[in-house]
Structures are given as C-alpha cells and as structure tokens.
Amino acid sequence: MPESPEVQALAEFLADRIVGREISGVDIAFPKALKSPSTDPLIGCRITGVVRRGKLIDISAEGVGDPVHLVVHWGHDGWLLWHDTVPVGTKRAGDATLMARIRLSGDGPDLGPAGPAESPGFDLTDSGQWKALSIFVVADPRAVPAVAKLGPDPLDDAFSRDALGAILAGRRKQLKALLQDQSAVAGIGNAYSDEILHAARLSPVVHAAALSTAEIDRLHDAMRSILSSAVLERRGLAPEALKDDKRANMRVHRRPGEACPVCGDTVREFTFSGAAAHYCPTCQTNGVALA
C-alpha cells in the first residue's frame, strides 16, 4: 500500500495540475469501488485543494452548493495514472484494473486552455488480486471511517517525542504492529516500519510499553528523519516513478540476503501479519533470528 511519503508526492503532483480546474465527469469503471451513493455532487465543482490524510488523498472542491471532498483510499495496490488528454471511454489503463476516471475542464492556472477533446484527467487503478481501492464523495472528510480514526501524523511538526511517548505508554502491542496501526500513528505501513525500526536499532516484535527512554528517543528521531527524507526524495517525481524510487532507497525492506548497510550482517525476513518483513539481527534483535 502507498505510504505517507509516496501519497504526499501524489498529492503535490495532483495539486500542481488540478487546483483551479472543474470536474467535468467521473466514470466509475468498478462500481464496488464507490462507497458513496453518487459522484453527482462533484460534477461542475472547481477543485480548491489536494491534501494527504495519513495514507489517503483528499481532493476538495466547491460548486454552487456545499463544499465536497473526493477521498481516495488506495487499498493495497491502488495507484494513480495521469493523462494530459483523457482517453475516450473507460478503456483499461495498462496492466492495472481501471477503477475510476476523473475528467477535468481544460482551463487551468498554469497549463493553459484546451478544447474538450484535449481535457486532462486521471485514472484511479488497482493492480491487486483483491480490488480494495475505495472512493468516497463526502461533505466532510471525517465522514470517511479511515480518516476519522487516524492517529497523529509523524510528519506533522506537532509530533513531538512526548507525543510518541504517550502513544507507546502502556501498550502491550508489538512495535511494528503499533507503527502500522493507523489509529495510533498515521501514514506508516510495512516498508517504512521496517526502515524506521532498523534506523532506531529496535526489534520489530518488542512490546511498545517495554521501550526505555533512550529507545523512545531513537524511535522518534528515526520516524521523523526516515519519513522526512523520503518525502524530499520523492518530491517532484511523476507517479510512474514513485514506486521504483521507493524500492531503490530501502535499506533493509525487501533486501533479504543482502548485507546490512550498517553492520554487514545478513538482512533476514520473517512473516508479519501475512506480509514479508525485514530486519538486521545484529542491529535490532541481539543476534536472534525471528521465526
């Protein structure tokens, strides 16, 4: 699933291209993806902003009525495909399944005017076996359950060391699971939890409540530095380049059998919540191999 650095890059990419444009059409190609009664409230609205909320994107728009939000939950394998000129109809986009196509007016702040046949837009796609990308059309983004339950965001300047300590206090939950719990901490998934725990020199399976003061300090520093650096690395990249760039910059995630860049030990793999997770035994588990 896209995590906060990649979703932030997608939000910025879209904001540069769609703010100020009108939504001229929404084609739902995969009906189960739409979790709201209709997309009609979006038609004719002018887009006013694009923001990231955890691992979701929130596109806000205004029309003659109340403001409306198009909120996208990417699921496990959702993604975005931009079109300078939207294809006619709802033909499948590449190898992924087309979930929805959003058509925009040709008039934009920086891209210049265009005729109806040249109007831009973007596709929401899902390449997974189980199609989990979800689309919500709401007056308030907090009406989306995944937004309403979001915990603090580590990329927020208000995410202090004390704020993290309060999240960890008394939690008998394994640390990797807690980092991936969106109601505890927003925006982190399997990949960045591996990277953060490696940088903090912490075991993925230690209970959160067991961390010492020094370990909480290291975890806070790692969360802030890993995610902030990733945001800067992805900024300005087109959607089609984001996934490869993310993979190329991972230090332990998806690198089993390779040498740890810190100590030279072999990066190991274990199964965590049904997914492959990665760690360095020397740096993180006192040499103990996780089952």
How would you sum up this structure, described in words?
With 291 residues, the protein is α+β, with helices and mostly antiparallel strands. It has two domains: 4-148, MutM-like, N-terminal (N-terminal domain of MutM-like DNA repair proteins, Alpha-Beta Barrel), CATH 3.20.190.10; 161-284, Helicase, Ruva Protein, domain 3 (Orthogonal Bundle), CATH 1.10.8.50. Helices cover 27% and strands 21% of the residues. The chain has helices spanning 4-18, 145-148, 161-168, 175-180, 190-200, 213-234, 239-248, 281-284, and strands at 23-28, 46-53, 56-62, 68-73, 78-83, 97-104, 121-126, 134-138, 268-272, 275-279. The strands form three sheets. The chain has a four-stranded antiparallel beta sheet with strand order 1-6-7-5, with no helix packed on it. It has a four-stranded antiparallel beta sheet with strand order 2-3-4-8, with helices on one face. β2 and β3 (56-62) form a beta hairpin. α1 (4-18) runs parallel beside α6, α1 (4-18) runs antiparallel to α7 and α5 packs across α6. The model is unreliable at 109-116 (pLDDT under 50). It catalyses: Hydrolysis of DNA containing ring-opened 7-methylguanine residues, releasing 2,6-diamino-4-hydroxy-5-(N-methyl)formamidopyrimidine. This is Fpg/Nei family DNA glycosylase. GO terms for molecular function: 8-oxo-7,8-dihydroguanine DNA N-glycosylase activity; damaged DNA binding; DNA-(apurinic or apyrimidinic site) endonuclease activity; lyase activity; zinc ion binding. Belongs to the FPG family.
